[in-house]
Amino acid sequence: EVQLVESGGDLVQPGESLRLSCAASGFTFSNYDMTWVRQAPGKGLERVSSIGTFGIPTYYAESVKGRFTISRDNAKNTLYLELNNLKSEDTATYYCAKGGSTWTERGQGTQVTVSS
Fold it and tell me: Are the C-beta atoms of residues 12 and 116 closer than 8 Å to each other?
């Protein structure tokens, strides 16, 4: 059974940083591209970033390019997302997902709230 468990979300002020983690199990993590998606209140799912099996290639949505960094540790079966210079519009539930642009399963999510 695929399990994806996100952590690291918090309430922060604009301009601050966070690091999200996703612990994966139930599949061979190193064989899959991985993705972070987010859902803001009242909006649909948005693909934020993806990463290839060995860390390349990477994809970033235009809205986060230059501020967010995706990475992975295949030895630890863990996916990361570094969020810098956070803005109020980054407020959302962040999910990690198995796969790239055509991801399949996702976790339960971790809440990121950016507010002064």
Answer: no
